[in-house]
Request: fold
Amino acid sequence: MPDIKHFDPDAALEAVVRLFWRQGMASTGIQDVVTATGLNRSSLYATFGGKQELYLAALRRYLEHRSVPVFRRLAEDGRGLAAIAEFFAGLIEARCSGEYARWGCMISNAHAGAENSDSEVRALLDRHHQELRDAMYAALDTADTQGQLSPGCALGAAADLLALLAYGVNLRSRAGADAHDLGRTVTAALAALGGQAAPNP
Reply:
């Protein structure tokens, strides 16, 4: 007979996402995972594999469930710079207040950790960066079409700048940066593109 799982793998993986997100890969041991999920080691290994496989599954889930939907909304929003300003306002609010305050971004945290030397982790980080950058580019292209950007604004370079700014917000917020100061930086960046001020986070 096939083995019947007496737990919800999806719920267990979500608990693991939160654990790795908050603590990081290096600071999290299997016993931490056991405590967070309430599962025994044999169930974890049978379902997900070892710590590295578990981390990859958690990172993939974070990317697909938290990052990609936000990027898609930004890319498909028809307001141009207002959509970018709203993206950053939401990002700052999420990073500085609420349930996940000061956790940073799991992807940005991985960029700063030793785990980024793993080829599979690096592939997920590269995918995240490309999708973030593409979403910024799409919103900037809309802004350009609507005459919101300064003449001669290089869309590719501007998309790279805004993607890097998003990483900066993630890392600085984890270190305790003030939401108002982060919002002021975003406002300055958008003003340099010839745009509107970001709403206050």
